[in-house]
Amino acid sequence: MTLTATSDLDGMALRLPFSLAKPAGSKRPVKVIWQPGEPQTIDIDYGGVRLRTADGGRYLAGSIDIPEMEGRVRYPLAADEVLHLDLERLAVNFELGAETAAVGNLRPFDIPPLSITARQFFINGGNFGRMRMTSRHTPQGHEITELATKGALASFVATGIWKSRGGSNIDGILKSEQLGESLRKLAVTDQLTEADGNIEVSLAWDGGLLDFSLQEANGVVHVSTGEGRIASADPGFGRILGLVNVSALKRRIKLDFSEFANEGFVFDDMNGTLNLSEGVASTENLTIKAPSADIFIAGEIDLGTREVNQVIRVVPDLHGALPLAATAAGGPVAGAAALVIGKIAGKQLDRIAEMRYSVTGTWEEPVIERIRQPGVTDDENDTSYDPLSDFQ
Q1: Residues ≥6 apart with Cβ < 8 Å to 253
Q2: Residue range of the domain that includes 36
Q3: How many domains does the chain fold into?
Q4: Would you say residue 372 lies in a domain?
Q5: Is 309 within a domain?
Q6: What single string gives the DSSP state of each residue in 243-296?
Q7: Per residue in 253-287, pLDDT tens?
Q8: Using an 8 Å Cβ cutoff, are 60 and 44 in contact?
Q9: pTM, 2 dp
């Protein structure tokens, strides 16, 4: 005997991942076939998922083929058994600054322990290579014991936990030889190009792992890169590092830095730590080093109101450029003398020419103003200030 039941699930809401979810007002056909006996079998066909009971009724096993994933699935029917997903493709899309949708009333142990592998893992269309994730139930909550990706764009390794008493946290590191492209695909920023580097994160937030929101997160993000370029492109959430303000500086700065080209600002390396706390992103030590100048960014951005309060310091590398200029003007002897002066004065020469800018307003419309320093004039014809007067 075989019993078959079909339905369009009209009026029933299904809180399932990705495109398997269904609001109550829509229709989605489902077919269930039951064959009693010993053992009994159940077949389910729903929206690209085809499952049949296996292992004496301990699992529903079969295939899944939806826009976000394709592969094999083994779903446990017994408590604390592992959900296995062996996928050819897994694709997720998100916008970092977007509000996250509520994930119902899920609790950490409502999701079974996971074992997921994907031979192709896509984020916002970018191929991040192979992906592996494992998790387990512990007295503390649902623990991610491993989350790892490895591909041409980047590698990422992380661990985390969805706590049984509420809240989640994750610790991980992203390494990439194409960091700019990786950040673009992760919906962070389009501004950083031609750079390799690492990003380390240690973040915590209220709610489940699927309820992550940058505005609600607390913790630390550390950025370290090699040579690259800050382009005049859509900054996205790169605004929280002040990158958009560095790009805007080329309209205000008076020195002729070759690094401020039409294609963007070329730099040697960038390092800094971003602190997130109660919806505010702050940094005290973001440093961008370029051949002709170092740029230092400090301050904060309110991720809710998007208001900016930062200070940018630009320190030209005058002691490095002085011997070249002297050689061109007076020959090798003058160049050698300037080299000695530059070595003695060192970075003090650079600090004399330091320029400071305040950044206020919002990140969509930042207001960048020069901070006047005592004893320094903007009049190019004023020679009363001797930059070497401090040296005896």
Answers
A1: 260, 314, 355
A2: 1-65
A3: 2
A4: no
A5: no
A6: HHHHHHHTTT--S--TTEETTEEEESEEEEEEEEETTEEEEEEEEEE-SSEEEE
A7: 544 444 444 566 788 999 999 999 988 999 998 99
A8: yes
A9: 0.78
